Amino acid sequence: MNESFMEELDLLEREKGVPKAMILDALANALVSAYKRSPGAAEEARVTIDQDTGEIKVYGQELDDDGNVVREWEDTPGDFGRIGAQTAKQVILQRLRDAKRAQVFDSYEGREGDLVTGIVQQSDHRVVILDLGNAEAVMPAGERIAYERLERGARVKALILEVRSETKGPQIVVSRSHPDFIRRLFELEVPELVEGIVEIRAIARDAGHRTKIAVRSNDPNVDPVGACVGSRGSRVRQVVNELRGEKVDIVEWRDDIRQFIAEALSPAKVRQVILDDTTMEAVVIVPDHQLSLAIGKEGQNARLAARLSGYRIDIRSETEQAGGPTEAAGPSGAAGPSGAAGPSGAAGPEGVTPGPGAAEAVGDGAPTAGEEPSPGA
């Protein structure tokens, strides 16, 4: 090595932020290992590198039983300049990789909950790898949208779940199935959400099938549902396009839990909601012809309404409530307390992921993407 090499290290420090002293220290340690592999080498040694000239010297050492140096002599091999140059290249490349990993980690650390856009590099049944430009993100199978096919080269958005520092570099874990992914997508399309005029109070999601969000306005002159739906459904349509067709319903948040449960069960029409606040249960009475609609396909509507409200919901037809026979949706038409189909006709709130200031949930009844908003929306 020579003076020009040391100048290159100075340039590397300025442009890449890799400290010169760190490289020289790593290089000295690597050269000690290289020296010990040479014929006739001492068992212990140290290497010095002149920071001005780049001259390398090796000193063999003799230690006593306590590890103290009792004798030292210069023992630089004749061809050590060539070995030093080769080792220096390897050390510099490794330090550059380490520096890049550190920069990537620093740029993504603390960004959990942010949206990122990436290009699909790899997609199989186990994992999806996204190229974020300056880093790669990993989407495990459990964080994908059900039945979604992500083709190589496709540009998609995802939610950062976790940023971990690992020996092979930072690992960025992302999700497209998390409920907060919906929240961030709406924030891209609805300025009122970012400004705090409208807020999303609750989200319930059956990823790949249906999502419902409950919104409210902090300005009496702004309709929260209309703001999220957009003119002729333009805003919610953008969200649905990113979700590859997953249905999105928007309902208005109500402080009165009875009204809110009724909202959550729309498009079914609710006659009456009977609450038991002690057990967090609600009996919902609907017209006979609305029973199947209120329960939804495979109990989905009832299940999402339960998540939205935090109440266990028992849906009954008017005839059933009166004690007569009913054309119920059948024994599999309602969701049990675990959210699975069951004969009870009740839906439990399990699976709720609370959002800021609210439980996560959703109701089937407000404007769906692509549909015209209801009056006032």
Descriptive overview:
This protein has 377 residues and is α+β, with helices and mostly antiparallel strands. It folds into 3 domains: 3-108, NusA, N-terminal domain (N Utilization Substance Protein A, Chain:P, domain 4, 2-Layer Sandwich), CATH 3.30.1480.10; 115-175, Nucleic acid-binding proteins (OB fold (Dihydrolipoamide Acetyltransferase, E2P)); 180-347, GMP Synthetase, Chain A, domain 3 (2-Layer Sandwich), CATH 3.30.300.20. The chain is 31% helix and 28% strand. The protein has 11 helices and 17 strands. The protein has helices spanning 3-16, 20-36, 80-108, 179-189, 191-195, 224-229, 234-242, 257-264, 291-295, 300-309, 318-321; strands at residues 44-49, 56-63, 69-74, 115-123, 127-131, 136-140, 155-166, 169-175, 198-206, 210-217, 247-252, 272-276, 281-286, 312-317, 334-335, 341-342, 346-347. The strands form 5 sheets. Strands 4-5-6-8-7 form a 5-stranded mixed barrel. Strands 12-13-14-17 form a 4-stranded mixed sheet. It has a 3-stranded antiparallel sheet with strand order 1-2-3. It is elongated, with a radius of gyration of 32 Å. Mean pLDDT is 83; it is low at 326-344, 351-366 and 370-377.
